[in-house]
Amino acid sequence: MYKKPLGVVAGILPWNYPFFLFARKVAPALLTGNTVVLKPSSSSPNNGLIAAQLLDQIGLPKGVVNIVSGNREIGDQLARSPKVDMVSITGSVGAGQSVMKAAAENVTKVSLELGGKAPTVVWKDADLDLTVKSIVDSRVINSGQVCNCTERVYVHGDIADEFYDRITEAMKKVRYGNPLGNEEVDMGPLITQSGLENVESMVNKAVDEGAKVLTGGQRDAKADCFFFEPTVIGHATNKMEIM
Question: Which of 20, 36, 172, 179 is a good FRET partner for 185, with 20 to 30 A between their CA atoms?
Answer without folding.
Answer: 20
